[in-house]
Structures are given as C-alpha cells and as structure tokens.
Amino acid sequence: MTQMRAMSDKPISFADVFPEATEAQWRARVDAVLKGAPFEKLQGRTYDGLTISPLYARLLEERPRAVKAGEPGWARLVRVDNPDPVEANRQALADLENGATGLHIVFQGAPGAYGFGLPAGRAALEQALEGVALDVGLPMELDLGPQTQEGAQHLAALIAAANGEAANVVFGHDPLGLMALTGGAQPDLASAAELAASLPGRALVADGRAVHCAGGSEAQELAFTLASALACLRALDAAGLDLEAARGKLAFRLSADADEIMGVAKLRALRRLWARVEEACGLMPAPIHIHAETSFRMMTRRDPWVNILRATVACFSAGLGGADAVTVLPFTQALGLPDDFARRIARNAQSVLLDEANLGRVADPAAGAGAFEALTDALCEAAWALLQETEREGGLAASLACGAFQAKVAKAQAARARAVAHRKDAITGTSEFPNIAEAPVEVLAPMPALMPAPQPAGALALTPHRDAEAFEALRDRADAEAAARGARRSVFLANLGPISAFTARSMFAKNFFEAGGIAAPGNEGFPDEASLAEAFKASGAAFACICSSDPVYEDWGQKAARALVKAGARHIYIAGRPGAAEATWKEAGATGFIFAGCDVAAVLDEALRLA
Question: Are strands 445-446 and 336-337 parallel, antiparallel or unpaired?
C-alpha cells in the first residue's frame, strides 16, 4: 500500500519520454517536404501585409499586460432589435430568464441594425424594457442611429426613475462612426461632449464596426477606433472635463469574426494601444470597456447553419481577447429578423463557452503564446502607424471628410473581394461545399433591402458588405432561372477512366459549379469516347467539364474533348491547370479551365450566361 501511494504521488511527465526537438530539426523536415521551394510558401499574409508564420516560439520573458477589470468572463448580451416593442420585450425577458446577462438595445438606422431595430421615442423604449430590472446594474449597450440619438437620454431617464445605477451602461453616442457610415458632414464634437457630460457613465463609444463591415483590415479597424476615441477625448477635455473623468466617458466596440488568432490579437492590441494613448496624455493606464459583436460581414444567407460555427469561433476569440461584453448575432441575421430558436442558439453559444468551457476564468489566456503575442505586436505597430497617418491628415473627421481613410478601406475591400472570388478566403457552405438542395430557414420577417442612408452630394460613406454577396448573387440568378425554366441548369461531369483517377477533380468540379447554383450530378466514369458522348447527349446539360488525372488526360483527354464537341457540347471546361498543354486542349475544343486559385466567381458568371 505504501509503495502504491508513493507511485501515485509521483508526477507523471511525458516530456522525458521523447527527445527534445529543435527548430533546426523542424526546418530540416520542412525543407525536405518543400523540395527546394522557398520557406515563404508556408507563410500567410493579412490584409495589412502582416506575416503569419507556420510556427512560433513560446514567449518566455514577462511583459506588462493591459487586462480588463471586474468579474471573470464577459456580459452575455442579446439583441433588442424587434421593430415591435411589445415583441422585443417578450424576447428580451425570455433571454434574460434563460442565460443572458445583459441587453444590446439596437435602434433603427444604427450601425448594427441590419435592417431592423427599435423605433425612435421614449414610449417604444419603455415598452421594450417593461418588466426588466433597471435597478440592479444590468449591463446594457445602446446602438444609436442618426434619427434615434435621443435614445440615450430616454434610457438614462428610465434608469433614474427606477433608482438604478448606470455604471454598466454604454449609452452609445458615436458621432464619428455615424459620419463614416452615412458620409455626412463633420459632427459637432463639442455638442457631443456636452451631451456626454450630462449623461452618467460611458456616454461615448468608439465603434470600429463600420470599417470592418466595409471590408477594412484589422489594423484599419483599430486605427479608426483609436482615432475616434482620441477625438472624443479631446472634445471632452475642451468641454472642461479633466482627463481622468473624460476617459471614464469612453467605451469601445469592435467586430469579431471567425479568424480566431487575429480576433484575439485585435482585442488585445486595442487595450495596449489605448494604454499608450493614456500614457501620452500623462495618465496611468486603466482598464477599458470593450464590447464585441460577432461579424455581420461573415454571415451568409446560404447554408446559414454554418453561421453557428462562425459565430461561436468569433465569440471564443472575443472572450479570450478580453471583451467585457459580447453580442452573438443569431445565425439567420443575414436572412431577416431572427426567431426565438435562432436567438436561443446565439444565447446558448455564450453560455456553453462560459459555463461549460470556463473560458472566462483566466485573464489574458493568450499571454506568452508565440503566435498571439507576435501578431498582437504586429497589429499594434500597424495600427499605430495608421493612427499617426490619420492624425497628420488632421484627425479622423478631416480624414473622413476628404475621403483619405475611406480610400484605405476600399483598397483592403478590393483585395478581400479578390480573395473571396478566387476562394483564397473560402466560405464554407457558400463558395465551398455548397448545398443546392438546402431547405429554407424561417425568420420572423425577411431582410429588407439594405439601402444606404440618404447622403449629401459628394458624400463618402463606408458601405457595408458581406463577404458572401458575390456568390449569393450567382445562386440567386441560378435559382431564378430554374424557377422560370422548371429545371436547374447543370454541367455534365465527363469523368474519364477509373474512379481512382477522376474522383479528386470530379469532387472539385462538383463543389465549384454548385457554388454558382449549377447542378453537377455524379457518375461512375466512362471508359471510352463513345460511352462518354452518348451519356452527354442523354444528360441535357448545356456544357461539360472533363475530370481525371494527368496520366489519363495525356492518354485520351483531347480525344474525349473532341468527342464531346461532336456530341454537341458548346462549352467544355477542363478540371486542372492546363500548363504546357493549353494550346492542345483548346485545339481539341476546350474553352475554359478550372483549378484551385482561378477566379471562381468569374467562371461561374460565364457559365450562367451560356446558352
């Protein structure tokens, strides 16, 4: 018994079982696999041009941290955005009774309204909050639109009438964010500062979601948020508030998407960067309040169930990055007004991460991890450089007024659109692994056309985009054609030879064309040109795609193309890069090539135009 107890008390270490590996050994193995290709082939690039390496060393030295204050974890917010205040109230009460710990109150026309939102006026707000305990310090975030700015004063009055405190309330005034979103004139920051001084707690928010939703990069979103907060701080200082009181009037809001490492790094970088601003102002850095909302830009209308996974990863990243409050968009948000089921899934994602995965129990869990630390540092440098550039342009308002900041965002958006079109940035369920037989998903009301807000002549607005829009438009065209014709357009997969030869490229082609709503039914392959031509004639397809291995292509690929042309195929794609055989393929009748890295959206657009 004594011997057994001694054995059980001895810690078990598996590190001693294996010899210690060195980076040099790893590089030698990598070089062998690369076979002469440069190591940089394994490195990625962000839209800020930052390098993402395949391996990072653990950071051993200690460094100062800017962590949040308060209880572990984050406030689990739910959206109060139903245009019917009575229904919004029912939803809010149900959410609060089932795990939510705070409210994200969204008004019509707000940056986060996404087509819906509470109407203006105190009566609507009062109805929406009927029965909500306003005297217990409930966390609340306001999302205000150009016509609903008075919502902050209405909420403050309701809290005061309930003898409550507003310490956990962000009243949501965001003058520069609305300027960016609407392209309007420079805001009156002096009036905004006076209003903020009259409200309790955090009255102003520096919100970077407009940059994110317009396709901007992480550093651009951070620089915009910092520049907005700095402009508000200066206005509060000019209004007579001391800097200590002024910074207490500020809160921050960012988007969190499914890029886990960059999402964590972005929130960590914001805390470090604002601490640097505070130091430059002669202040000792203090914890800031960050509200993160899962990205609307990453949401899809097609196969929206995948949005549950995206939103969960985004929430995970926001929580680990140090968000004080998180809003998870329901998975049907891009389709319309989410129903109770979609809201429940969004709410429960946070509960699982906090209550079951215990993600909130560690402060700054990414500290010391090589990838997170390196990318946090790189983001800080890139965002600080952009902030300095914006300051040289006269500050954020001046930069927006002349269009300089918008031009930077537009450049990032153009690069992002190219990456999506080429499937470098793949969208599962939309551009990759689509389901053209998906069943419709219910919402309470369909998404209205998101028309831009009325803008003055020459206005420069940051126009919101969703990454999936280009592929969704292709699917919409294909569906409309199918409804009009009574049959869906299809491509004939000309699978040559045995299954082992064509499976890889045949599956690639199926996913490729169905991403555009073009059916690609499979088959067992064809041993010769005669059976291939006969099957094509019977298929009724408008065009064909030849799929097989390179040896089969060399053996009888061009013969197959000629047989398809003779059978009536007016357009023939080849699955794979043409290489040196491009001229031979075209001479045989091939008219296009599909391969990893090609412009998928452009090819699908062409395919939908074929007669």
Answer: antiparallel
